[in-house]
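All the exercises in this workshop are built on plain-text protein records. Instead of coordinates, the fold is spelled out as a row of discrete tokens. Once this layout is familiar, the rest of the handout is easier to follow. The record below serves as our worked example for the rest of this section.
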Amino acid sequence: MILISHRGNINGPNPKLENNPIYIDMALSQGFNVEIDLWVCKKEFFLGHDKPTYLVELQWLVDRGLSLWIHCKSLDTIGFIKELEYKKGLKGLNYFWHQEDDVTLTSKGVIWAYPGKQPIKYSVAVDPERYNDNTSSAYAVCSDYIKNYK
């Protein structure tokens, strides 16, 4: 099972550090994948949950692409990444957009399930501890407490 740190958190929520590129790299260095929140503003990339906060380069995303699950925080963001795929040949990023849909598909065809919707075979179970979700058939778990799943 793939273990995904939610915004870089591994031992519980930490709003002051979530989506900070250094914090993300710390979770990656411990062997976790990481879900990040991405914004595109004036063709620049930013990480941040509620607003664009940390400027990152496209190369930062590409270099970590195999381990990132990119939650596009606006329709403009997902459209811009798709445009980069078509026009610039960008490949390898795993991204998605959703609000409160039961499920959405990532760009790599993985089912990303809203919290409380498990069990769904081969899906990513998000924050399963909040709803005591059954993760036995999940493909991956994404949690603020991901270290507990190791």
Remarks:
- The chain has one domain: 2-149.
